[in-house]
Amino acid sequence: MNKFWRCGAGLALLASASLAFAEFPDKPVTLVVPFAAGGPSDKIARDLAEALRKPLGQTVIVENAAGAGGTIGSTKVARAAPDGYTLLLHHIGMATAPALYRKLSYKVPEDFETLGLINEAPSVVIGKPMLAANNFAELRQWIASNGGKVNLAHAGLGSASHLCGLMFQSALKTSMTPVPYKGTAPAMTDLIGGQVDLMCEQATNAVPQIEGKKVKVYGITSLKRLPLPSLKDAPTLSEAGLADFNVQVWHGLYAPRGTPPAVLAKLNAALRVALKDPDLIKREEALGLTVVSDERLEPAGHRKHLEAEKARWSKVIKDAGEYAD
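^ that's the sequence the OP posted. Answer follows.
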């Protein structure tokens, strides 16, 4: 009798859990952005949250948990309940943090479930408006003739501009003087004012300054040119002489490790619907972003891409010898 009671109780519990997963989500979902409000990742998150609302049938709340190069927000999600109600939207920094930070309170990718890549965007190499070089060939010569005196601004350790700058120096086989800032805005202000020489910044942030002719643009970091009016004449760095140079800033969606497969499947299905939203696509393209539609939209494809990027950037960062405490 007791044996049958335990069996019945177990089946009831299993049925109850299955029903709970089937009803997911039955309350708002929180989307954590590990950066401050107003930045490109925050904007992407808010656009995605709106596009996810219909397929999920619930409100998606964006929560900014900024600090330490995105590691504070990532830690928050890694330690959250694995129920699908706390998600993380993170950029390429997810792949670079393990190499940048000597002490990291989570493991990549082990502590996360990959849900799919969202978008990707190239960066652009830009210079102060009074720089003598007018194209990439002239810039390359100017860098060579000025040795280590060239100042290269970036928006902080682990930022897209920092990572792109490291790859740019590696491709040129030269070293520049890094000038770190607390964000893109102050770095861009000093570049416009001529206090620093160069910056390798995400196109999303640089296009307004290029359109206003406040900075000079020397090249795009993707293998294809960007179809934006302000960049129609800007070559890729690959065609300008740095063979196969390809640096893309990408964003992906994550859940805590151990989130039930049924919940993960629902979240991925909702992401797929959201990324086909015409309004979302239009907003992304206006920022120079390309919405992902290939195998990286699958959780397995996302994970494979994450691991490949982690290996790639680990070498670049270690060769540069730049670490956080």
